[in-house]
Write a structure and sequence with these properties.
This protein is of the alpha/beta class. The chain is built from eight helices and 13 strands.
C-alpha cells in the first residue's frame, strides 16, 4: 500500500575494522570495490580497533545536483535535500560526527531547525549513530525501513555477524516505511525501495530532480555488501540469503542518472564533488554506475556465500 507523509550520548561499541557498512576504509576504486569489501569483511576483526580516519575527517559541504548537498564527513556520507517546506537529511553518520553534520547543514544555508525529516538507510552505527543527537537538536521526524525500527529504537544492530555487536545511541522512529511507500516534504517526494539483506530494514531511497533537458533519477542505494554478515545459520535473520538475492535483483531494475551511496568512495562522490565545484555541472551524472555496482555486488555475494558454505 502506498502511503504519503506530508509535513507542513556517546555510543558504546566494539570497534572492528572493516565497518559493518562496508567500503569506507578501502580507498580508491583501483579494483572492484564491492569485491574488495567482501574480501576485507571476511578478514579477522579485532576488538578495540579504531575506525578509519576518513570517517571522522571533516569535509566541507558541496552541491551535488538540484536541491542535494553533501554534508557528511570525508568517509561517511550524509545528504541534505532542500525543499519548499524545509530540508530532509539522509543519514546521520557516526555519533561523534553529529556536530560536524549539523555545522555542515548550517554552512549549506539551512538553519538546523529547518531540517524536518531524517531518513535512515539502515541500522548500523556508521550511518545511524548520529541520528539521535541531531533529532534532539532540532526535533526532526525520523523515518526508516520497518525492518530496522526495533534496532534503531534499542541501539542494537540486527542479525548476526562475524565481528560481534556494535551498539549505537537509540533513537525514536516516527515512521517505519515499506517498499514503494513515499515520503513528501513540500513539493519533494522520495520513494522507499526495500533492499533487505545488509540489515532487515535496509532501504534504498529514490527521487527525481528537475533538470534540463530532462529530469534526473537519483538513487541513494542501501548497502548490498555482505561485510561480515553471517549468511549460513543466521538464527536472528534466517531469510538473509533470499533477501540479499531479491535486493540485488531489484536494484538491477532501477535506472539512476545519479548514484549517491552511504560510503562515498563507491561512487567517487568526493572526487565528483571537486569536479562539480570546478564548474562541471554533469560531474555526478553517470547512468552506467548503478549497473556496475549491482553486477559487482552479485559477484561478491555469490563468492562470500560459497566461502561461508564450505
Amino acid at each position: 500500500m502506498m502511503q504519503t507523509l506530508a509535513l507542513t550520548a556517546p555510543s558504546v561499541r566494539l570497534r572492528p575494522p572493516p565497518p559493518p557498512g562496508g567500503g569506507g576504509s578501502l580507498g580508491r576504486r583501483t579494483k572492484s570495490l564491492v569485491g574488495a569489501i567482501a574480501i576485507a569483511a571476511s578478514a579477522p576483526l579485532f576488538l578495540g580497533a579504531a575506525d578509519p580516519p576518513a570517517w571522522t575527517r571533516p569535509q566541507a559541504p558541496f552541491p551535488i545536483a538540484g536541491p542535494i548537498t553533501y554534508v557528511g564527513s570525508e568517509g561517511i556520507a550524509a545528504y541534505l535535500i532542500k525543499t519548499s517546506a524545509g530540508a530532509i537529511l539522509l543519514d546521520g553518520t557516526l555519533a561523534e560526527n553529529a556536530g560536524m553534520v549539523e555545522r555542515n547543514i548550517v554552512a549549506a544555508g539551512v538553519p538546523l531547525r529547518d531540517v524536518k525529516l531524517i531518513l535512515v538507510t539502515h541500522a548500523h552505527f556508521d550511518h545511524a549513530a548520529g541520528v539521535a543527537a541531531i533529532k534532539r537538536a532540532n526535533g526532526a521526524r525520523v523515518v526508516a525501513g520497518a525492518g530496522d525500527v526495533r534496532a534503531l529504537e534499542t541501539g542494537v544492530p540486527p542479525g548476526e555477524t562475524n565481528y560481534g555487536v556494535i551498539r549505537f545511541p537509540a533513537v525514536d522512529v516516527d515512521r517505519g516505511v515499506r517498499d514503494r511507500e513515499t515520503v513528501t516534504l513540500g513539493t519533494t517526494t522520495l520513494t522507499a525501495r526495500a533492499t533487505p539483506g545488509h540489515t532487515p530494514g535496509c532501504t534504498t531511497w529514490t527521487m527525481r530532480i528537475l533538470a534540463k533537458p530532462r529530469p534526473l533519477a537519483v538513487v541513494f542505494p542501501c548497502s548490498v555488501s555482505v561485510a561480515g554478515n553471517r549468511l549460513i545459520g543466521n538464527r536472528a535473520y534466517p531469510g538473509i540469503v533470499a533477501d540479499y538475492r531479491r535486493s540485488i535483483a531489484m536494484l538491477g531494475t532501477l535506472h539512476a542518472d545519479i548514484v549517491l551511496p552511504s560510503h562515498p568512495e563507491l561512487a567517487d562522490v568526493i572526487a565528483r564533488g571537486k569536479r562539480r565545484q570546478a564548474g562541471d555541472t554533469t560531474a555526478f551524472i553517470d547512468p552506467t554506475l548503478l549497473p556496475k555496482i549491482v553486477a559487482e555486488a552479485k559477484t561478491a555475494f555469490d563468492a562470500d556465500l560459497a566461502k561461508q558454505a564450505r
